[in-house]
Design a protein that fits this description.
single chain, five-stranded antiparallel β-sheet, extended
């Protein structure tokens, strides 16, 4: 009986462990392929399964499949047994014709339950007209950087600025995408200088989780494309607004064939080529908003909805009441002006509290803006808080629309201490007096701590009297000359930038330290790189656009900087530029780069102080 009981307990334990595992059934395929190109369609499940049913694949030619691969492992930790099962079903397909095709969900059975996978979308591109396909990733690492760019023309690798709309209204958002197209492997991205977007308010889209190479067709050729930056722009004035060109330095790997000692000895070699790319200037036609704007219109453009609520409709005098408005929709919500809420005259009104919940993606900025209006009725009675109006220009209909909240009836009962001569109410708001006295017709007459002066003692002609004239005069002369000195120093832009270089760099490195602790690798290296480049630009008085590693070495030598410090600056710049695009980075290396940046700037400041003393 003991053996049977033990066996049942083990069976229940293992069965509970297996049942507790969530079943995951997923399909995967490349997002884009070319006509005639083979690709894999895979379905994976983390459990023993049977009866796989794949939808009809009439849009593709099935070359092979399904091939099945399985694995199972067990681990025991902290008194629990964990079983990991993986089954993968793979098909080899080939695109037959150009177009965008959807592969419906597949189904599979686990026990008596049926599970479905995610549907997939595959874009089949036309065959490359030039007969050349984008070079794959099988090229070997290595190779010296070459300055020769003849092997890669502007049609082989380029950056394109794609604009979703060329004609928009004021404050209407549109998407700008900077995309790299290349027939070669891109090994590094350097000195990416995007336009400044003058005349627009920019909301950048976070691409940290979306950056990946994909196949894309442009002008009849199939490129490996990569999104560098996506930004939603909101024009702030009407007319034609230009988007200036940008400049981007990249390093690509080019393959070439070389012959050996005999005609049959042919082998491939690879060289890294550095190339500078630019985007062309373009302009956006910004249309003014039509006439007939409602009185409650404050520049909102997009699609919005509004809801309102009140904390209570039955309260007492000197107790707070909160009215909440929530504006939701798609548009430049961050810059929306707060609607004006008209409270009764006897109500004490406080600054509204605003909370934003926003999301920026390719379709624009969406989310909500919550505004809480706090007020305190000071007297008893029945009051009405009128409805508030919010107007916006609807892009879809091309007309103005007005939203209206509810009006609220508020009953205020008599509060404790109301209408007394010296009643006081505490207020928790930081921008109001802490204590409000009500009914202050007669002030209290002070009778204690009264001082008297002897007859004949007057303030006029005393020492204190003359000090009231002399001290302000001395202070005026002092601040006059001090102000002139500050104006003279501020007029010297180069001197001002040099003085503030360390302060600006320290602020950026402080932000980099926060990113380091959070483990945000790419943002950390980007912020550290900006801090060091900005510091060198300000300290050496060289515009950032003209700053290179070579002229930095020359200028630092002129300052008498040691070779050790030169090597340290070079180490920081090289590691930051490389690590931003590396697939992974050691946390220890990030700490080392951060400490090196702090030490290098500190030693640079000490070196300059010694030179100034000498």
């Amino acid at each position: 009986m003991k053996k049977i009981f033990f066996f049942l307990m083990v069976l229940i334990h293992f069965g509970g462990t297996l049942l507790a595992q969530d079943v995951s059934f997923k399909g995967s395929a490349p997002s884009a392929v070319a006509v005639g190109q083979q690709f894999r369609l895979s379905y994976s499940i983390n459990s023993d399964a049977k009866d796989l049913r794949v939808p009809e694949l009439s849009d593709f030619e099935v070359l092979m499949g399904p091939s099945v691969s399985s694995s199972k492992s067990m681990s025991y930790s902290a008194g629990q047994t964990r079983t990991v099962i993986s089954n993968t079903y793979t098909y080899i397909l080939m695109g037959k014709s150009e177009g965008t095709f959807t592969i419906p969900a597949a189904s599979i059975k686990v026990g008596n339950s049926e599970y479905k996978s995610n549907p997939l979308t595959v874009k089949v591109l036309p065959q490359d007209k030039s007969g050349a396909a984008a070079q794959g990733g099988a090229q070997e690492q290595g190779g010296d950087v070459s300055s020769e760019t003849k092997a890669a023309s502007d049609e082989d690798v380029f950056v394109r600025m794609h604009i979703s709309k060329n004609s928009v209204y004021e404050n209407e958002g549109f998407l700008v995408t900077f995309k790299l197209y290349s027939l070669y492997d891109v090994t590094a991205l350097e000195n990416l200088k995007f336009p400044d977007f003058d005349g627009f308010i920019a909301q950048e889209i976070d691409l940290l989780q979306e950056r990946q190479m994909e196949l894309d067709s442009y002008n009849g050729r199939n490129y490996r494309s990569f999104v560098l930056k996506q930004t939603v722009l909101y024009p702030q004035r009407s007319g034609k607004i230009s988007l200036e060109s940008g400049k981007y330095d990249i390093v690509i790997r080019i393959r070439s064939q070389q012959k050996g000692r005999n005609i049959f000895d042919v082998f491939d070699t690879y060289s890294n080529v550095k190339k500078s790319l630019t985007t062309s200037t373009t302009s956006i036609n910004v249309k003014p908003l039509p006439s007939g704007k409602p009185a409650s219109f404050n520049g909102a453009v997009g699609q919005y909805s509004m809801s309102s609520s009140i904390s209570t409709t039955d309260t007492k005098a000197n107790e707070s009441v909160t009215v909440k408005l929530v504006l939701s929709g798609n548009g430049n919500i961050k810059l929306l002006k707060n609607p004006e809420l008209n409270f009764p005259n006897d109500f004490e009104i406080y600054d509204p509290q605003v909370n934003l919940s926003l999301k920026t993606n390719a379709s624009g900025v969406s989310g909500s803006k919550t505004i809480e209006y706090l007020t305190i009725p000071r007297h008893a009675g029945d009051f009405e808080i009128p409805a508030v109006e919010f107007s916006y220009f609807d892009i879809n209909s091309g007309s103005y629309k007005t939203l209206k909240s509810d009006a609220y009836k508020l009953h205020v009962a008599k509060g404790t201490g109301e209408n007394t001569a010296s009643s006081a109410v505490f207020s928790g708001s930081s921008n109001k007096e802490d204590v409000k006295f009500l009914g202050k017709d007669i002030h209290y007459v002070k009778t204690k701590n009264i001082s008297f002066s002897q007859k004949g003692q007057f303030f006029f002609g005393s020492l204190t009297y003359w000090l009231f004239y002399i001290v302000p005069l001395v202070l005026f002369v002092f601040f006059f000359f001090y102000y002139r000195k500050q104006v003279k120093e501020n007029s010297n832009i180069a001197l001002l930038r040099t003085k503030k270089a360390n302060k600006v760099a320290s602020k950026r490195l402080k932000n980099a330290g926060v990113l380091l602790k959070s483990g945000n690798k790419e943002a950390f290296y980007d912020e550290t790189l900006k801090a060091v480049w900005g510091y060198l630009s300000d300290k050496l008085n060289i515009p950032l656009a003209n700053l290179t590693k070579d002229n930095v070495d020359v200028e630092l030598n002129n300052y008498g900087v040691s070779q050790e410090l030169l090597d340290k600056f070079r180490y920081i710049l090289d590691n930051c530029e490389f690590a931003r695009y590396a697939p992974s980075s050691d946390a220890h290396e990030m700490d080392k780069v951060f400490e090196s940046a702090l030490d290098a700037i500190d030693k640079m400041e000490n070196t300059i102080k010694k030179i100034n003393i000498q």
